Amino acid sequence: MSREQQKQDAAAKAVEYIPDNSIVGLGSGSTMYWVMQKLGELVRQGMHVQGIPSSPATEQWAKEFHVPLVYFSSDMTKADVAIDGADEVDPDFHMTKGGGGSLLREKIIADAADKLIIAVDQSKIVQQLGSFPLPVEITPFGWQKTARDIQSLGCDPVLRRDRGDPFETDNGNYVIDCDFQLIERPDELHHQLIQLIGVVETGLFADMADIIIAGTDSGAETFENKR
User: Fold this and answer.
1) What positions does UniProt annotate as the active site of this protein (predicted)?
2) Which architecture does CATH list for 3-127+206-224?
């Protein structure tokens, strides 16, 4: 089975967790395209939902598939459920995210949701995080110093670029991709990084997922966090 088919299977299973008349946090990434397509089908069939998009790409998919959108406001700060993808997921429900550069908004939405559902293809399931460089969002001012401080924690930090220029997030920040090789204590590493001056957010989502859905050659497999 192709990786795209695995993503489609995981996405189809993930939307089953969306209740009618709910606010849904909408993550980013390639699997979310299939989530949005399936959610659009349910909306056409009569489901009433409103989605909070985490990126311009997700917002565009929502419009393409006619999924109603809503945005955070003083009167709306919670979501019933959020669905997102991940770059890596380990057996303890720790994740790395941010390959697309939307990690800060994705984490805000994940924190706002009563339940976080992660849909991935089988290749994203790993025994230990670290094969995928960890994205860290930082301020542009003094980014060289921030990168050096991050390096002191034991990684090879690389400034992400787009056509030669520094890649900018939707928040106007930079992203440092950090090769730690193996991340043994994700929660501890997150706290070390977030305390550094200039670090806005990290791509470590430690024990935040409630349900992981992995598309495999034999269909979608579901793993529930029993914490």
Assistant:
1) 106
2) 3-Layer(aba) Sandwich (3.40)
Which residues participate in catalysis according to the annotation?
Answer: 106
Q: How confident is the model over 96-112, as a mean pLDDT?
A: 97
Query: For 153-177, b where at least 16 C-beta lie within 10 A, e where not — what string?
Result: eebebeebeeeeeeeebeeebbbbb
In this prediction, residue 1 carries a pLDDT of 76
**Segments making up each domain of the chain, as ranges:** 3-127+206-224, 134-202
- Which architecture characterizes domain 134-202 according to CATH? 2-Layer Sandwich (3.30)
Q: Which residues are annotated as a binding site?
A: 28-31, 84-87, 97-100, 124
With beta carbons less than 8 A apart as the criterion, state whether 87 and 95 touch.
yes
Tell me the pTM: 0.95
